[in-house]
Amino acid sequence: MKKAAIVTGASRGIGRAIAATLAREGWGVCINYLERKDAAEELLEQLRAKGCTAIAYQADVAQRAQVAAMVDTVRQELGEIALLVNNAGISYQSLFQDTGDAVWERLLAVNLTGSRNTAMEVLPEMISRKSGSIVNISSMWGLRGASCEVAYAATKAGIVGLTKSLALEVAPSGIRVNCIAPGCIETDMVKVLGEETRRMLVEETPIGRLGTPEDIAALVSFLASEKASFITGQVITADGGFIV
Ligand code: NAP
Fold first, then answer.
1. Is residue 124 classed as helix, strand or coil in its secondary structure?
2. For position 18, what pLDDT does the model report?
3. Within a domain: residue 79?
4. pLDDT tens profile 23-53
5. Distance 28 CA to ligand 1 centre (A)
6. By residue range, what is the domain housing residue 134?
7. Which of 7, 8, 11 to mutate to test the pocket of ligand 1 (most atoms within 8 A of CB)?
8. Residue 36: CB partners within 8 Å, gap ≥ 6?
9. Is the pLDDT score of 1 beyond 80?
10. Residue 139 CA to ligand 1 centre (angstroms)
11. What is the mean pLDDT of residues 205-233?
12. Strands, E, within the chain: which ranges?
């Protein structure tokens, strides 16, 4: 019997690559998305055509009730949930003092509370089985700080604290919690910054290129595997040397 993995924000970008990689490796995957049903269903069809097991599910991770309903459906349709990947996230660029309450609260709700909501819903089952793993997607900006992205960087730093503290709390229950801090990855999130900024980011990345969603998916795959069974509470940076 395949084990189930929930990947939040899996319709596009990094989450999409994570979902595809895990499905190919034999996980039953829930492709969570917010608005882009077309993109989620296109991925679902691709994966099913390759013989993978997957479902697509619309839920706003910021809404606890929607997350609870998603987790129930995944349990019914895919079985035991052994992996949660908290990838869904939004970014926003503005001076700190121009960042209004609504933007600040939405970034916190999606990026930080979203990861809390999903973990709250999957943990009871993981604790009772004494196994499972959670991988949270932070950002290198959450480690080094980012001018004009204070709200975003604060939520991503919060994910680091969530990861380390939760890892300590649930390790005795046989559950591992780790975190990935990607550098600049070629997705829509970077595309909106424009070509000039993209070029500067490539120049600032010692390895000389932006990362691919597959670079991050490979790391999730490792952290979710038995090969990482002694690794918990860690923040692993994958940024081409940006913040060495
Ligand atoms: P992206 O291309 O903009 O995709 C974002 C994904 O999150 C989409 O699938 C979107 O769904 C989903 N989403 C947004 N809000 C959601 C919500 N409230 N509930 C459920 N799903 C939601 O972003 P990305 O670049 O792949 O980033 C993925 C993660 O990596 C984020 O947490 C981001 O902060 C982090 N990260 C990215 C970079 C980078 O350079 N790209 C660097 C460091 C960290 P829809 O398609 O339905 O809108």
1. helix
2. 99
3. yes
4. 999 999 999 999 999 999 999 999 999 999 9
5. 21
6. 4-238
7. 11
8. 11, 12
9. no
10. 11
11. 98
12. 4-7, 28-33, 54-58, 81-86, 132-137, 175-182, 235-238
CATH number for the domain including 177? 3.40.50.720
Look at residue 244 and tell me if it is in a domain: no
Task: Give the DSSP letter string of 187-220.
Answer: SHHHHTT-HHHHHHHHHHSTTSS-B-HHHHHHHH
Whether residue 243 is contained in a domain is answered as no
Q: Which are the catalytic amino acids?
A: 152
Q: Is position 109 within any domain? A: yes
**Distance separating alpha carbons of residues 125 and 24, to the nearest angstrom:** 24
31 C-alpha to ligand 1 centroid (Å)? 13
Residue from 7, 32, 34 to probe ligand 1 pocket by mutation (most atoms less than 8 Å from CB): 34
Count structural domains, the chain.
1
Which residue is associated with the tokens 């960087």? 153
Please give the average per-residue pLDDT across 183-209, as a whole number.
96
Q: What is the pLDDT of residues 145-164, one digit of tens each?
A: 999 999 999 999 999 999 99
